[in-house]
What does this fold into?
Amino acid sequence: MGNSLKAVAGFVPSSKCQKYLLEDLEEMPVDKMVDLSGSQLRRLPLHICSFKELVKLYLSDNNLNHLPPELEQLQNLQILALDFNNFKALPLAVCTLKQLCILYLGNNKLCSLPLELRLLQNLKTLWIESNCLQCLPEVVCELRLLKTLHAGSNALRTLPGRLRRLQELRSIWLSGNLLAEFPAVLLDMPLLEVIDVDRNSIRFFPSLAHLPGLKLVIYDHNPCRNAPKVAKGVRRVGRWSEESPEPRKRSGAVVEITLHERPSPPPAAKPEPEAETC
It folds into this structure.
């Protein structure tokens, strides 16, 4: 019954309904955080925008497809979670929040990102996985402090060359895209520590041994016939990694050794990307 009432209240902009959704949250929380995840919201209660000292706002797993212009009053906001909603476009009010350092946009219906995103020059972590992106928006390459980019489960076929401008980038997660070749731009980013290209269509991997910062490369579930070469101490997760040999060559022909997908003992499970803190 409670969830049903919240679903109805989400449609109604009256102050009483908004206060019901906020569960009588009328003053700034002591921890400067508001979590309305899973509240079946269809619009953001305007009362939230009066909390001008708010630092963290979680709106995940609702039915939001727009945000009010009043959101720009939250100029101290550092973490904003809009994942698992119905956004087809990123509300421009988000791009006015210049203190944001973590932005969750995953599991929406985004086909692009606005040029105004470049205003978020303090952004360090961007999650845009599970959207409708056919190419990585060029504006991402202007987020000079970006350290972690989660862009898995889209329809990316390549990466822009301007990505090499992101000299602070340390982790890039590209699992579940349509990459037919290993993105060449990543070969020019020596400070990358984590590269995830799991579940793509890559048939050949170039050597990654020249990347001095690399610590982990995940390349499993690609139709590749070789494992990427890496420097000593770099962990590989995928077929023909440390747990199993690469194909043998006979008279110039490649003959694959018959292997199970997970030989015994099984390789370590693929690590999940972790959210960062500002």
